[in-house]
Design brief:
Elements (H helix, E strand, L loop, with lengths): L1 H26 L29 E18 L2 E20 L3 E13 L4 H10 L16 E6 L2 E6 L3 E4 L3 E7 L7 E7 L15 E14 L2 E13 L13 E14 L2 E10 L8 H4 L2 E11 L4 E10 L8 E10 L1
Antiparallel strand pairs: 1-2, 1-15, 2-3, 2-4, 3-6, 3-7, 4-5, 7-8, 8-9, 9-10, 10-11, 11-12, 12-13, 13-14, 14-15
C-alpha cells in the first residue's frame, strides 16, 4: 500500500514538473486585449507583452472584434455607438542583446454593422445580463454619432476600413529575464481620424510588467500584472474634451489543463479618456477576458479570449481576440 502511494505521488510529481516546464511561459503571457470602443481604440494604448529570451524573435497576427451598442445622452452631449470594430494587427518583436527588445505593430481597422448582434443577444440572455435596449434599433447596423450642444461633432454610417496608427516599442528586462520589464511605446499618426482608424496625434506611453509562478491548491499557476500611463497628443477628434494623460493596468492568471493547453483570465483597466458626463467617454473602464492558450509546438502558440465589460457602457458589450504567435 505504501509503495503504491509513493509511486502515485512520484508519478504525480513528474507530471506536475512536465506540465510546469511546458506551460510556464504561456501561463504568464498576457492576452493582447485592448478596449475596442471606437472613441478609445484610436489612441495609443499599448498591448501587454512579456519579455523575450536573448536571441529570440517573434511574429504575431492578432485579430479582434468588438461589438458596440450605446445610446446615451446627458447634459449637452448625445452619443450613438452602434456597430462593430475589427482590428487585425501584425506584430514583430526582436531581442537586442540580453535585456532589450524592440517591437513594431501595424494595425488594420474595419468599421461596419458587423454580424455579432445575435450572438451578443444570446450571450446576454444566457448569463442574464442587461442588453442595453438593443431592441430599439435594427440589428447589424452602423451608426456612430456624437453631438455636443446640438452640434454634430462626429458622424459615420458607411462601412470603412484602413491602416491604423503604427506603434513602435522598446522594452528592457530590469532584473533578469524573470523580473520587471520596462516598456516605452510611441504611437505614430498613420491612421485616418475621419474613419476612426487613428487619432491624428502622437501618443507616448511607459509601463512595467511583472510575471511570477506559484503553486495554488497544488496547481502550478502563472500570475502577472502591469501598470503604466500614456501621454496623449492633441488629436483631430474632440481635442477640447480628451484628457492629456491616461493610466492603465492589467492583472491576470493562467492554469495548465494539459501539457500544451491551459486557461487564463485577465482584467484590463484604464482611467477615463474624456472630460464628459457620458459614461461611455467620462468613466474609467474595466474589462475581463476569459480564454485559453494552445502550444502547437515549441515555437507556435495560439491564444483565444472572450471579453466582457465589467463597468457597463465603457467598452464593447463583447469582444473576441485571437492571437497566433510564432517564435524563431
Amino acid at each position: 500500500m505504501d509503495r503504491r502511494l509513493y509511486k502515485s505521488a512520484f508519478v504525480a510529481l513528474v507530471i506536475g514538473m512536465l506540465i510546469t516546464e511546458g506551460t510556464h511561459a504561456q501561463q504568464t503571457t498576457p492576452f493582447r486585449t485592448r478596449n475596442l470602443s471606437p472613441l478609445v481604440s484610436v489612441f495609443g494604448l499599448p498591448a501587454w507583452e512579456s519579455g523575450l529570451v536573448a536571441g529570440e524573435k517573434e511574429f504575431s497576427v492578432v485579430s479582434e472584434v468588438g461589438n458596440h451598442y450605446r445610446l446615451g445622452g446627458k447634459g449637452t452631449e448625445e452619443l450613438v455607438l452602434d456597430g462593430e470594430t475589427w482590428r487585425t494587427s501584425l506584430f514583430y518583436r526582436s531581442s537586442l542583446g540580453d535585456k532589450w527588445v524592440v517591437g513594431l505593430e501595424l494595425p488594420f481597422y474595419q468599421n461596419s454593422g458587423g454580424f455579432l448582434d445575435d450572438v451578443v443577444d444570446a450571450w446576454h440572455s444566457f448569463f442574464r445580463l442587461p442588453d442595453g435596449n438593443r431592441n430599439l434599433r435594427m440589428e447589424d447596423q452602423l451608426r456612430y454619432l456624437y453631438k455636443d450642444n446640438g452640434v454634430t461633432r462626429y458622424f459615420l454610417d458607411n462601412r470603412s476600413r484602413g491602416i491604423g496608427d503604427v506603434q513602435v516599442s522598446f522594452s528592457r528586462h530590469l532584473f533578469g529575464e524573470s523580473g520587471l520589464v520596462f516598456k516605452g511605446t510611441l504611437k505614430l499618426p498613420s491612421g485616418d481620424p475621419d474613419i476612426l482608424t487613428g487619432s491624428g496625434g502622437t501618443d507616448l506611453s511607459f509601463s512595467v510588467f511583472q510575471k511570477n509562478s506559484a503553486m495554488l491548491v497544488g496547481v502550478p499557476t502563472g500570475l502577472y500584472w502591469g501598470a503604466g500611463f500614456m501621454m496623449i497628443d492633441d488629436s483631430d477628434l474632440f481635442t477640447d474634451r480628451h484628457e492629456d494623460w491616461v493610466a492603465f493596468g492589467t492583472l491576470g492568471a493562467g492554469w495548465p489543463v494539459l501539457q500544451n493547453f491551459g486557461l487564463k483570465v485577465q482584467f484590463d483597466s484604464h482611467s477615463k479618456f474624456y472630460r464628459s458626463e457620458l459614461d461611455e467617454m467620462g468613466k474609467a473602464s474595466i474589462q475581463v477576458s476569459v480564454g485559453g492558450w494552445w502550444s502547437l509546438d515549441e515555437r507556435r502558440q495560439l491564444n483565444v479570449a472572450i471579453g466582457e465589460d465589467l463597468i457597463v457602457r465603457t467598452s464593447p458589450d463583447i469582444s473576441i481576440n485571437i492571437d497566433f504567435s510564432w517564435g524563431f
